[in-house]
């Protein structure tokens, strides 16, 4: 267990946080949220022992295994993807090295007197390796890599060949395979697609050890966290539950603080009036002095702020484009003459807001490059409409900012000198007000750099915005403000993002890029945002409203007027009520019976799936199987599918059981 108490940290004259206390114990999954620049990464570095607090202490056992995924990786990658995925558990690596050492000794000691001792040592080492799960580690590594979007053949690829995003995935796989006692993840979804985010959610929602993660993705927080710690106003506040519970409890806390502050203000006003009224009256001097001292010692109630960033992303009014913004007609696209996408037919019209979804490597970037004229199609045509002005935001734009410049100087280099007041007004709308505009870019957090890069993109009057993962590194208030800006933006938006909340609230259509095909979907279907969770998504949807049974007149039927006898009316009403109650009881009985049958069916399937997982795991634990690489890959794939299927059935059973309980 890791505990921190009374932590404080300052830089220069600025206090990042003070009196921070938290506890990470097995099975606890904690989301750390807060504004950009509030000190989340600094707090993590203190917990890891990579930085010292000004005050307070962190207590962790010396032999505790802590796994950490930072936002940025070192620039010297070594080994292959599979080697990276299997390198996280130090005990496993030591046991594997010991086996290799003893195997070499067995080879060198043929016919010697020490061979029996070496054989016994090898047998003991093999048993220890098996106890650690060594023989199933490679299968587990393949499963995790597959869930994070790697293909089966990628395991042998050198890390040095991969982009930064894919190297980050390999580093995440290393931590998931190792299962350290404390797992700390800093924005783990930044380099993932929607498919991989959904897979990672399922893994971390059942994570057995302590988990602390930073994320701006509220859907991800809601699915994984069972506690939320907010770092704001220089301190931390802990809330029990996911993101939805955090929002409710935070509002209740703020409302309570506002009420208490208002009550305190009224009392202070009463005391101040007493002091002012009797300040110069000798008979009241002792009471006046007593009240003055009381006010001086009073701890004023501070009301937490609802937003840490007061930015308001704004767009200048663009000129009007043609109705058709971009058109794909029979397009095949790829590289070196090899098609990645085939027969793409699509029209994007003025004012539409579209999200591109699909696994990484499926061709989303290829589609965007053709829209921008950066890639010629192999076949077919891509036509950009008349008067279409384009601005793009890509993830790498934060990397090309000049760290020696201030935010103001960087914006001036982009726009030219439009006047000191104009530039500072623009920077203020993106959260860089006052002296913050003069801070060096090298001193900014990742989220602050993203806001600055977005400012450079959005200050030009364009009518087509192409945004690639714009929420990466942004804090939650900034994500909300970007969402509001995109909703109000009068032009056309094409956005590539894994942030499902942003997609739901901005996009009006989805373009799914998968298996070489591009498919247009009107609206935002939840099952497309939660791949692999179709059953769960279905249970989350509200049941359709049915017409009430025995509700009286049919549509268009005239009122027959009152009966001659009020008693007859009363009897008729009672009979109707009894009939309605009987029908409702019968319907409830039928629904309950049907649900129980479905639960029994799912339970049987779940048991069979668990048996299949156990059988495949036993096969993967057999050392001899690893002599056949193709067989191992086949078993690993089957094991992965069986485990995911069992997890889906488990979740489905829990959903059905919960529905049955609520019905009863």
Question: What's a quick, concise take on this entry?
Answer:
The protein has 664 residues and is an alpha/beta fold. The chain has 20 helices and 18 strands.
Topology of helices and strands:
Elements: E1 2-11, E2 14-24, E3 29-34, H1 40-48, E4 55-59, E5 66-69, H2 81-85, H3 90-108, H4 115-131, H5 134-147, H6 164-178, E6 182-186, H7 194-205, E7 210-214, H8 218-224, E8 227-232, E9 235-240, H9 243-278, H10 285-297, E10 324-335, E11 338-349, E12 353-357, H11 364-371, E13 379-384, E14 390-393, H12 407-415, H13 420-429, H14 446-458, E15 464-468, H15 476-488, E16 492-496, H16 500-506, E17 509-514, E18 517-522, H17 526-529, H18 534-540, H19 566-620, H20 629-663
Parallel strand pairs: 3-7, 3-8, 5-6, 6-7, 12-16, 12-17, 14-15, 15-16
Antiparallel strand pairs: 1-2, 1-4, 8-9, 10-11, 10-13, 17-18
Helix pairs in contact: 3-4, 5-6, 5-20, 9-10, 19-20
């Amino acid at each position: 267990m890791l505990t921190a108490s009374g932590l404080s940290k300052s830089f220069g004259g600025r206090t990042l946080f003070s009196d921070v206390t938290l506890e990470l114990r097995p099975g606890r999954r904690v989301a750390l949220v807060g504004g950009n620049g509030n000190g989340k990464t600094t707090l993590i570095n203190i917990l890891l022992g990579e930085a010292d607090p000004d005050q307070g202490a962190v207590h962790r056992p010396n032999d505790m295994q802590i796994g950490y995924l930072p936002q940025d990786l070192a620039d010297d990658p070594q080994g292959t993807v599979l080697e990276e995925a299997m390198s996280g558990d130090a005990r496993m690596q030591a046991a594997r090295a010991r086996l290799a050492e003893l195997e070499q000794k067995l080879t060198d000691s043929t016919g010697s007197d020490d061979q029996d001792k070496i054989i016994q040592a090898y047998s003991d080492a093999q048993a220890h390796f098996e106890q650690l799960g060594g023989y199933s580690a490679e299968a587990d590594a393949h499963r995790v890599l597959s869930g994070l979007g790697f293909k089966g053949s990628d395991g042998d690829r050198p890390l040095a060949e991969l982009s930064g995003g894919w190297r980050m995935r390999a580093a995440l796989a290393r931590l998931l395979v190792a299962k350290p006692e404390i797992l700390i993840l800093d924005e783990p979804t930044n380099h993932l697609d929607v498919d991989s985010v959904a897979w990672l959610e399922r893994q971390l929602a059942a994570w057995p050890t302590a988990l602390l993660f930073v994320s701006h993705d509220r859907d991800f927080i809601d699915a994984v966290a069972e506690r939320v710690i907010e770092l704001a106003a220089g301190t931390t506040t802990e809330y029990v539950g996911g993101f939805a519970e955090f929002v409710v409890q935070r509002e209740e806390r703020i409302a309570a603080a506002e009420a208490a502050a208002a009550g305190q203000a009224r009392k202070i006003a009463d005391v101040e009036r007493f002091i002012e009224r009797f300040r110069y009256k000798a008979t009241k001097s002792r009471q006046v002095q007593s009240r003055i001292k009381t006010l001086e010692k009073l701890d004023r109630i501070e009301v937490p702020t609802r937003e840490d960033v007061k930015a308001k992303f704004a767009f200048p009014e663009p000129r009007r484009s043609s109705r058709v913004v971009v058109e794909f007609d029979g397009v095949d696209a790829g590289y070196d003459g090899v098609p990645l996408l085939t027969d793409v037919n699509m029209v994007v019209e003025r004012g539409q807001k579209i999200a591109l979804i699909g696994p990484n490597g499926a061709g989303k970037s290829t589609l965007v490059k053709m829209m921008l004229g950066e890639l010629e199609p192999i076949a077919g045509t891509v036509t950009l409409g008349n008067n279409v002005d384009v601005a793009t935001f890509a993830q790498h734009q934060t990397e090309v900012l000049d760290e020696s410049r201030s935010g103001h100087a960087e914006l001036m280099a982009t726009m030219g000198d439009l006047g000191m007041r104009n530039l500072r007004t623009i920077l203020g709308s993106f959260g860089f007000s006052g002296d913050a505009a003069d801070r060096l870019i090298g001193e900014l957090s990742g989220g602050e750099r993203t806001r600055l890069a977005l400012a450079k993109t959005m200050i030009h009057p364009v009518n087509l915005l192409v945004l690639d993962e714009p929420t990466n590194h942004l804090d939650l208030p900034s994500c909300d403000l970007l969402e509001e800006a995109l909703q109000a933006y009068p032009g056309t938006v094409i956005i590539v993002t894994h942030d499902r909340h942003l997609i739901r609230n901005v996009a009006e259509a989805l373009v799914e890029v998968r298996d070489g095909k591009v498919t247009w979907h009107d609206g935002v279907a939840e099952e497309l945002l939660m791949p692999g969770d179709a059953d769960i998504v279905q249970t989350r949807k509200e049941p359709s409203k049915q017409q009430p049974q025995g509700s009286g007149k049919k549509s268009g039927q005239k009122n027959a007027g009152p009966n001659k006898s009020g008693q007859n009316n009363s009897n008729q009403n009672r009979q109707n009520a009894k009939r309605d109650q009987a029908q409702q009881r019968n319907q409830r009985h039928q629904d309950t019976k049907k649900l129980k049958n479905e639960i029994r069916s799912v339970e049987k399937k779940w048991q069979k799936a668990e048996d299949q997982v156990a059988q495949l795991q036993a096969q993967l634990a057999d050392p001899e199987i690893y002599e056949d690489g193709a067989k191992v890959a086949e078993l690993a794939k089957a094991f992965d599918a069986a485990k995911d299927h069992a997890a889906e059935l488990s979740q489905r059973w829990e959903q059905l059981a919960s529905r049955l309980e609520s019905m009863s």
